[in-house]
Amino acid sequence: MLFGLGAAIPHIVGAVPEYGPPLDLDRAMTLRQLRTFKAVADLGSFSLAAQQLRLSQPSVSYQVKELEEALGLPLLDRLSKRIQLTEAGSILYGYARRTLDVLDEAALALEEMRGIKRGNLRVGASTTVGIYLLPAALGAFKKLHPGLVISLEIGTRASVQEKVLRNELDLAVVGPALKDSDLAIIPFLSDELVVVAPAGHRLAKKRGLSLKDLAAEPFVMREPASGSRWSLEKAARKAGAKLQVAMELGSNGAIKHAVESGLGLAVLSRYACLLELSSGRLVELDVRGFPIRRDWHIVHLRRRKLPSSVQAFITFLKDPVWLARDGRRGRALPPTD
To answer: Which contacts (CB < 8 Å, 24+ apart) does range 27-30 have?
Structure first.
């Protein structure tokens, strides 16, 4: 039952005298219908809303249809390729968002009374930090707080930050953070991009190489949208070098195997190839301008009051002690406003 929403939506009540008596919103809608409607409106898609809510698409469509029938007004325009809000839908969406935010704050206040013995922690990350760093951090944090249910979603920095903005993730750890006034950005760690070659490569013992010296070498690269690819191409333009792209692969693991097999050179995060470098399966080339420093950041929704579990995890991440225990290299970045 939706408490007090009837008094909060005079525009809808006053706009529909032809549909019968004034609406009793406490009976006309449920919180589940309201959350479903908001998810469809946020994502512009019934199928995406179903994925987010972990419901079937017919169930999502049915709930929205029930809500429209109860209100006697169409809320969504289904004629275009992307679902859009009608005038009534726009009015309801504003109040629904505010109402659900208040309920989420109430749940947060109750959760804080329990401390962080229970609850959820939803973390997102871009590829490298999500695969090679955060699992160790989450594992160590889980040992301290075994009652927490922790999830990690790995994707592009744009996709995980978008999910933070939609409050589908509590926080995300990414490289260069996308600037958005709704996001708080906290410096985390410094990473290094290095040029790697297979063991025994003819350039392995050369010193002071330039990128022009590598122009004849095949390179195994990530997809064009990746951070490491962007950094390498920027460095090549600065050095006036044109590099040969022999192969594009979608993961650091695949790239490492390709380089070990002699298919080319690569530029990788030092975190991603620590094991291969220490074991001698890969070697780091001495190239001017490398290693390239890049910084990782923690982002969260600025307007949201963070649960105790999220606040504690951010504090934990910024403490270099867990990194030292895990045997990782890394330097915490100084905090900034």
So the answer is: 28/67, 28/70, 28/71, 29/2, 29/5, 29/67, 29/70, 29/71, 30/1, 30/2
8 A C-beta contact, residue 105 and residue 50: no
**Pairwise CA distance, residues 220 & 263, whole Å:** 7
Phi and psi based region of residue 33 (left: phi greater than 0; alpha: psi -120 to 50; beta: remaining): alpha
Q: Which residue has the tokens 């490298």?
A: 128
Question: Residue 61 carries which side chain, given as an amino acid letter?
Answer: S
Exposure letters 195-212 (e unless 16+ CB within 10 A, then b): bbbbeebebeeeeebebe
Q: How far apart, in whole angstroms, are the C-alpha atoms of residue 322 and residue 328?
A: 9
Q: Using CA atoms, how far apart are residues 124 and 172, in angstroms rounded to an integer?
A: 4
Give the residue, 23 or 56, on which the prediction is more confident: 56
Residue linked to tokens 């410094």: 190
Give domain limits for the chain.
6-113, 120-189+294-332, 191-292
The first and second tokens of residue 51, run together, are 């994925």
pLDDT of 164 reads 93
Q: Measured between alpha carbons, how far is 274 from 252 in angstroms, rounded to an integer?
A: 12
Alpha-carbon dihedral angle through residues 176, 179, 183, 188, given to the nearest 10 degrees = 20
CA distance 237 to 229: 12
Is 186 in contact with 306 (CB distance < 8 Å)?
no
Kindly report, residue by residue over 21-52, the tens digit of the pLDDT.
566 666 678 888 889 999 888 888 888 888 88
Q: Give the fold, CATH level 3, of 120-189+294-332.
A: D-Maltodextrin-Binding Protein; domain 2 (3.40.190)
Q: What is the pLDDT of residues 158-197, one digit of tens each?
A: 899 999 998 889 999 998 888 888 999 999 888 899 999 9
